[in-house]
Amino acid sequence: MPDLKSDFISYFNRAGVKRLAAGLVLLAASVGAAAVYGSAAPRAYAGTGGTTAAQNRLRSQKPTPSAHLDVIFTSDVPETDIYLQGEKIGPTGKDGQLLVRLVPGDYVVEARKKGYVSQGRTVKVSARQTSFKFYMGAPIPAATPTPTPSPTPAPASSDGGEGGAGDGASAANAAAADDILKRFQDPQQTGKLTRTDWQSLLAATYKELSADPNDTQLKAREQFVQGQLEYLAGNYANAQQAFNTALRLAPEHALAAYGLGNTYLATNQAAQAVKEFERALRADPKMGMAYKGLGEAWTALKKDKEARAAYAQARELGFLSPDVSMNLVRGLVKDKRWAEAVAALQPLAAAQPSAEIYTLLGDAYTGEGQKLNAFEAYRNAVKADDSAARAHYRIGEIQLDEKNYEAAHAAFERALALDTQGLSIDRKKARQKADEAADKLSKLRKSLPKPGVP
Asked: Residue 270: which residues within 8 A CB-CB, separation 6 or more?
């Protein structure tokens, strides 16, 4: 009689081996695909302005940490071809966007369009970062006709080689780039650079890179400018990524460290911002704007002494922007350094009069015991802005002290009506003083002889 039990076990062992072999083949295929696209080839959808049914299905899915994410690549030039790991995945639409599906990970992405300098960088796709922008810059200018060769030999260049049109173009690009970077670091021009300036710098950098694609400093500069453009657009996560890439390429890149510090400030990470601004200053101790950023970071951390020292350094290096000066005088008044505050505020009041400056000047005069000057300063604050509640409150205090009860009562009531949240005045104290002025005014009136009574 045949052994049915043995035959049964043998059959399932053979089937199990076959299934195992099939599973290994599928696994190998999956690993091969992952090597290129992160476990699955991406699907691309050009343009996100006109939402398709496919895009709606993509967005309705809630990916797990290992699942695909909707990733948007954007170019400032429509119909730009996007390459992933060296393979074209599609053009951006007329709105400049291309939607693809990728698993989290690092990817080498390149944006190409005829007539523009191609650009590429490594991006890190994650649940927190799924949007990446490329700025193609200005179109490559049309080539000028080559002139008829002259029998006169070309002059030798300074390095012993032959000079040529290419060298002249490279020198022009480098000069244009240097000019923008110098303006950015000039205290008088830092805030005047526009988005167009940065795009021009990016285009010049691409042209230099096309001549020397392995120049690490140029690659770092390109990433810094990308970060600056993202920062100006409010895309702080993208900006941080670009600045960090620049610093990996050139660890002593002071401007990239400064830019990274700004992104940390913008995202309420003041302690981290301090580290980056200090890093920038180690690379360039004369960077006034980094001292300004450091002062802002210390202010956010409520480290007034450190903030004041940083602002002072910024001013010493010529960074005399109004916000730096204001932060300095606020610190002086807060620390009750009255004489220094008066000396700093008087020229500010003459150059850029405002309610805040006059109010701070009044506080400094009050601290110095110069009541008349303080009263005049507070009156100027009210003239500059009648809604300056603190100035009205201070006028009330002076009038109360001078026994001008009616004027004092009116000033306190005005301050209370203007600052309903108690942001600049102590409402409880103001109410008490208003009532005190009203009470004393009432008693004064009662004590006065009535008309017609001897």
From this structure: 264, 297, 298, 300, 301
Instruction: Identify whether the C-beta of residue 202 lies closer than 8 Å to the C-beta of residue 226.
Output: yes
Rounded CA-CA distance 345/355 in Å is 12
Distances (CA, A) of 175 to 161, 205, 224, 254, 264: 20, 11, 18, 20, 31
From 330, 341, 400, select the one nearest 366 (Cα to Cα): 341
> Amino acid identity of 83?
Y
Give pLDDT tens digits for 317-373. 876 666 666 777 777 788 788 988 888 888 888 878 899 889 999 999 999 999 999
Q: pLDDT tens, 409-421?
A: 999 999 999 999 9
Q: Cα separation of 252 and 231, whole Å?
A: 20
**Gap between the Cα atoms of 367 and 55, Å rounded:** 65
Walk across the sheet containing 105-112 and list its strands.
87-91, 81-84, 105-112, 119-125
Is this model's pTM higher than 0.85 or not? no
Pairing of strands 69-75, 97-102: antiparallel
